[in-house]
Amino acid sequence: MRSMTLRLLALAVVLFLASPAHACRFAKDAQPEHWFEWASALFAADVTAVAQDRQKPIDVITVSVVETFKGPPGTFATLQVPSRMWASCLLEKPAVGARVLVALNANGDALLVPLTAPYTDLLRQHVSAMQSNPAPESDTRKGSARPPP
């Protein structure tokens, strides 16, 4: 029984440590279709303010929405990002004026990465392709709905 408990504890630790690594790899390497699958809101934005929460290890980043790729249109957003994400994912914390891609999922998780003009074009192409070839309704009775990568 003790051996089984230790195995479960080890598995829990491995899963806990692997989750941030997966998120970092996703943030750096995701293709447009992966962003659209993961996010319920996806938009290009310019960073207008960067601050740190004094009570928690969280960076508060305010952005002005420039272009909405998915989700309801908006004008600005305030995001709370764990401060450790920048170092652990080897991402640079955005400075005021930086153009970023912001992705929010249904669980309220936020990912924020630098956005280049060529990648913006890829996102626009993906939006155009989705609008000209809408996906068929998924039939959840048959289990055809796929989880995100």
Describe this structure in words.
The protein is of the alpha+beta class and 149 residues long. It has one domain: OB fold (Dihydrolipoamide Acetyltransferase, E2P). Helix content is 38%, strand content 29%. It has four helices and five strands, in the order ααβββαββα. The protein has helices at residues 2-29, 32-38, 84-88, 117-132, and strands at 41-52, 58-70, 76-82, 99-104, 110-114. It has a five-stranded antiparallel sheet with strand order 3-2-1-4-5. A hairpin with a 5-residue loop joins β4 and β5 (110-114). The protein starts with a helix and ends in a 17-residue tail after the last helix. The model is unreliable at 2-22 and 138-149 (pLDDT under 50).
- The main sheet orders its strands as 3-2-1-4-5
Q: What is the CATH class?
A: Mainly Beta
Q: What gross morphology would you assign?
A: globular
> What is the helix tally?
4
Helix content: 25-40%
The residue-averaged pLDDT reads: 78
| Beta strand % | 25-35%
Radius of gyration: 18 Å
Tally of structural domains: 1
Distance between the termini: 35 Å
CATH topology: OB fold (Dihydrolipoamide Acetyltransferase, E2P)
Q: Which CATH architecture would you pick?
A: Beta Barrel
Unreliably modeled segments: 2-22, 138-149
State the total count of DSSP E strands: 5
Largest sheet: 5 strands, antiparallel
The secondary-structure element order is HHEEEHEEH
Structural class: alpha+beta
